[in-house]
Amino acid sequence: MDLIVFLAILSGLFLAIALSEPLAARLRLPVTVILAAIGIGIGAAAAWFFRTDVTDALNPLALAILTLPISSDLFIYIFLPVLIFQVSLTLNLRRLLDDWVPVLVLAVVAVVVATFVIGMALKPFTPLPLIACLLIGAIVSTTDPSAVVSIFRATPAPQRLARIVEGESLLNDAAAIALTSVFLVAVAARDAEPNIGLAMLGLPWLIVAGAAVGWLVGRLAVQVMGWMNPWPLAQVSISFATPFVTFLFTDQVIGASGVVAVVTAGMTVNFSAPGRISPPALAQLRDAWALIAYWAGGLIFVLAALLVPRILADIRPADVGLIFVTVVAALVARAIVLYGILPLLTAARLSPQVDSPYRIAILWGGLRGAVTLALALAVTENPAIFVETKRQVGIIATGFVLFTLLVQGTTLRWVISLLGLDRLSPLDRALSDQVVAVSLQEVRETVSETAREMDLTPAIVRDEAVRFGERLNMAVERADEARDILEKDRVTLGLLALAGHERDLILEAFQENLMSPRLADRMLADADRLIEATLTEGRSGYRAQARRSLMASRTLRAAEWLHNRFRLKQPLARLTEDRFEALVAHRQMLRALTGFIEGRIMRIHSRRVAGLLHDLIKRRIEDTNREMEGLRTQFPGYAEELERRLIRRLVLQREEAEYDQMTADGLIGPELRLSLRDQTAGERAALATRPRLDLRLQRSDIVRSFPLFSDLDPESLSQLARQMKTVYAKPGDILMRKDDKPDRVWFIASGAVEAEQASSRFLLGRGEMFGQLSLLLRRSRRARVTAISHTTLLTLEESRFLDLLRRAPQLCTAVQASAEKRGVALDASQLPQSGAPAVVKSGWLRRGISAAK
């Protein structure tokens, strides 16, 4: 093909893509429908101009279009990895992980159900073998994520529901393509009676191996991009190579699903990048991928649609009936998922309640697109498949795609309107009227002052003031009609505004470099959960979710268990640092919300509602302070380091903002500004690194501060710190059980515990010990000890404790005093004598007692 002609065609395709969005908005249709129509129109026009005798002037261009090297490899190896990687890169994974069960079930089960329902429905009406019918079912079971998600972005649908549908649509493609490859191999083998069960056994390997390779490549890509933080364009280049390397290696070398690998790699980069790539570089990377995916998505639709006239050239009347059967079976399969599987997940509390209007919208919104056409094209290009099988697969898949785009796609907005999903609820309309009235009153004051300062013509100002006053009066009248909003609804609306403003504050802090990307990502996820809990359960949901967001995560509890059981310090130290940083930032956000209540919410809702919101925020601040104090007692000094770092980052941010303003005002030149930025770069880099929590150093400090060990010299204290083990416990953790065999002594470094023996209870606090009497008296534990606060303890094994008693007279005195206090007779013979060797009787059990449950 001539290069000039190729460039002309490519320019025309990009122009068509650019015009598709405004045209879709004008016609109120999905963009995919417009792109498909453009592609079909170009393909049909090229065929007509090439065959007509009317004119030969456009024959070279028409021939060039008809002979474009469009193949399934172009779609599968070039466009598909780009589109799937970009969607995986932009998903809110932290929120998606909350709903991984319904997403995974819907993605995998929906594909399997659709495949078998469509395959079994086609078998009685076609001479094709069952395995070929199942192949058709797998090909047409993919849904277009952009078309499905656009349903919810255009309606006030719950965010959680939209997120589940988006995740299901993405993983749906991966599962469908993996299943298609399984059946394609079976069909190409041309076995007279292929074993469907045996063919399905290859599916787990495709998925598991693909996911493993994708995770490894994604981790490697993030590591390399982290090294290239000073060069953001190089980071974009690395990210662009990632989906192609992942797909080709997995598909060609490993023999697994390249699509699954690309999805996993994209999710890995999405999840890990905020902790390793700087915020400006990450924003640039995502913007670049949005543009790349925009071009790829447009081209894949137009190029696939170009093939439609060619594929349907040999269509027969019987084929129309097969397309109709496929359409009905696909709708039935989707209904099975929506009305059978989803309710079961909802009953098991694994999925949100999906109301009937939304189910109908999802049912009718299952549009198919370029992925289905690409898979059908791969079948038609396979020389090992029978000609009639290739013909029917191509025609049925193409006809089905056309039906979903031209029938479902063009009527989708009408269906949404008919179901009332595009209209605000009465409560939202009432709130809207009140917001407009309050805003216009604020605008009137601002505009009046501005008009006076601008010295405008008085007559014009008066005319416009009269016109604005009429609009304001109408808004106030509509707002007065909405005075019957219940107080509980006003509280809910106020809480939604608070949660939304909290989200804005987090984004603002992140953009001003006052918060790390990882922390911002986690806090934004908490804010989203807060909004959804308020939407579904009102004030009680807001309060419950606020408490849940402060609770220690399962990961942190697992890290505590690993530390207490296996002495693994690094996971606990890192997660504790995260928790400290989150609590410090959380407290600052909550204090900023009180001013928002006074300045904004009170003007829309009543003073009583504002008072209730103040009480809720006050409780959240108290809960945060309580959690912070618990951590402070366990890890003294670390919170102060974080607060100092926050103040220094704030000072640096204000300093750099002042330099920027001076540059904008012309007081200093760009060269001087660059020099000043270089001067602050070192401090900025230092503040970007979070202070480390050294658990080993903390243990040494705790041992030195214990009054019981004041008799020991520095060398003995250091040796004792190495022998002791630190145990972290949260309220409710059982540290010692009744009838346990004694093998260690516990020292309380911070917090408090409760000992229960017979019918008596007594509290032990910082600086005290327990477990020593049963060890010295050679008897089983008589008490059950439970942590009643966040507690840090040091434990010492039996032999080392006995040796310590010989070297620390003050500790011996404390042991005897403790025995007298509890009415236990402990004579001097039961205490080891100074200088005597430590002896542990052979019958004693030696086992570790973990503080974690």
TrEMBL record:
GO BP term (any one): sodium ion import across plasma membrane
Residue span, Cyclic nucleotide-binding domain: 708-805
A GO CC annotation given for this chain: plasma membrane
Keyword entries, A-Z: Cell membrane, Ion transport, Membrane, Sodium, Sodium transport, Transmembrane, Transmembrane helix, Transport
Record GO terms (molecular function): potassium:proton antiporter activity; sodium:proton antiporter activity
Entry-linked PROSITE patterns: CNMP_BINDING_3
Transmembrane feature ranges: 30-49, 61-80, 100-122, 129-151, 171-189, 196-218, 230-249, 256-273, 288-308, 320-341, 361-380, 392-416
Membrane topology field: Multi-pass membrane protein
Matches recorded under Gene3D superfamilies: 6.10.140.1330, Jelly Rolls
Subcellular locations according to the entry: Cell membrane
InterPro entries the UniProt entry points to: Cation/H_exchanger_CPA1 (IPR018422), Cation/H_exchanger_TM (IPR006153), cNMP-bd_dom (IPR000595), cNMP-bd_dom_sf (IPR018490), RmlC-like_jellyroll (IPR014710)
PANTHER family tied to this protein: SODIUM/HYDROGEN EXCHANGER, SODIUM_HYDROGEN EXCHANGER 7
Protein name: Sodium:proton antiporter
Organism: Pseudotabrizicola alkalilacus
Organism phylogeny: Bacteria, Pseudomonadati, Pseudomonadota, Alphaproteobacteria, Rhodobacterales
